[in-house]
What we know:
The first copy, chain A, has about 325 residues and is mainly α.
Amino acid sequence: MTAVPPTVAAVFGAAGPALADRARTVDALITTLVDTIPGPTGSRAAGVVAAGGKRLRPLLALLLAGDGDAPADHVEGSLLVSAAAVELVHVATLVHDDVLDRAPLRRGVQTVWATDGPAAATGAGDALLAAAFQAVAADCPADVARILATAASSLAAGELMQRADAYRLDITTERYEERVIGKTAALFEAACRIGAVHGDVGEDLAGGIGRDLGVAFQMLDDLLDIEGDPAVTGKARGTDLLDGTVTLPLAIAARREPSIAAVDLPSLDIPAAAALCDQIVASGACEEVRGMAYARIDAAQSAISGLPGAPSRREALALAARGLVDRTS
Amino acid sequence: MTAVPPTVAAVFGAAGPALADRARTVDALITTLVDTIPGPTGSRAAGVVAAGGKRLRPLLALLLAGDGDAPADHVEGSLLVSAAAVELVHVATLVHDDVLDRAPLRRGVQTVWATDGPAAATGAGDALLAAAFQAVAADCPADVARILATAASSLAAGELMQRADAYRLDITTERYEERVIGKTAALFEAACRIGAVHGDVGEDLAGGIGRDLGVAFQMLDDLLDIEGDPAVTGKARGTDLLDGTVTLPLAIAARREPSIAAVDLPSLDIPAAAALCDQIVASGACEEVRGMAYARIDAAQSAISGLPGAPSRREALALAARGLVDRTS
Lengths: 329, 329
């Protein structure tokens, strides 16, 4: 982890040095696993991974597993490999998403799609996914493989649902939540469940925290696409809309304003997308979605405050949850 | 399995009704697993799966597992799920390959790429892969997850190696074999290893049989692209060459004939590809490759003849191996 984001640094500070040590080991493991992918494409995939990201999912796994006071060696090894595998599954989906979105840049570096083409990038995503399952099959209890496979299945299903819903302004809130649970929250949930498998928290309790945080994360991400400052987010507003992805703010705004419900999404261009974003904000839909996201985070915070173990873990998890609210990019 | 190919029917005949029953159950399991993929894309993926193929990999798993005389119920369940999962991994790679090759048809039906576009097809492949791992994690011993993940990793690595080698006429025989082991033989090997996990044959012995058969299968497939009758194979000769894929017959021919080594592959068109196929045949390279494929099949047959258990299993496996030699499409 070359540069630790402020939120993560705060979490490390609250949880104590054992967590930072574990996070560094997980980072090294991720690099080792990616290095098994052969050839120049493997090196490029390694570059994408090395470019960072906040490693939120491994962090959640480590936090749910407890405060690091001397677990048995084999449990520690399995925990670290599991946490690395969760991040690999996440990166695999990013590499595939970049193919589908024809994205030239990710985390400030060129995507595998841009440097090596769609074929190599599809192969690289498959290789990352397989490396995750291989590591887990070799070093972790069967529960971890079950949790990770369930999440990978949900991720693919969520992505397919989103593509099937393209350009549909009439999606319900329930359908949006179902998509978001698949596309995003399932992997947050898996990270927390994997932590629980290695620690003293019930798996379903941990999974619920991860799911709430994941849904909130995606809702706030969708709000950033509508309201975010392009100078901070690094991308134009309304990118989702141009892509045909109808997120909850737009769906709610369309229910409120007939003029928004009548928009012809496929014909949208960049200025029209920005104007539509303004209309969505004016409808009050963003406040409604923000309220839903905060309610999810409150539910997670409430569950976190009831967790057993050292106060430092509860404090660190609460900081991680707060970090999701405060994100601006 | 709506229409049983002649080779498979012969194998069923030799092995007895228990094998055919198991194969039908595996087929039903494959359908059930694919049906978990949501939405219209899931239905289309199910159509591709239902369109058949010879189900060679599940067949090898079932044959290596033994002759079916009353294994414990939980072993039987795990074997059938494992065999189905191997086929799902295979189909997942086909669906992704169709995206990369922009292939309109597969097994006579429209590909997911053709009907639903590259995004949905990439997602469908990911969903099939995840469904395989999920089924195995839920119902099979950890050895099966390990074997399947290793194979999935090899498949992706082999695909990446092949893309990295595109248009290179100077690849060595060793490099070609390494690619083929990854791209094709690893999954044949996995199928046989999975059978062994559920039966009385050593895993490495079974794996070696699968690897030899897989390499032979791919070599003969590559020969079909050079020598096959388009009226039988359903595709023009030289498709691999047009795609930049340098297979062993071409690599050997280039070593023998300076005029072939000097060919500018990227500028090849369909008539030029057919003419190059004729030159490869004239060089004698195809006979050399056929000899290597037959040597692999001989090695597999020799290992098969030493297997324990009922003679019917050895006979059925020998027929399956022979089927690989006799294929014309």
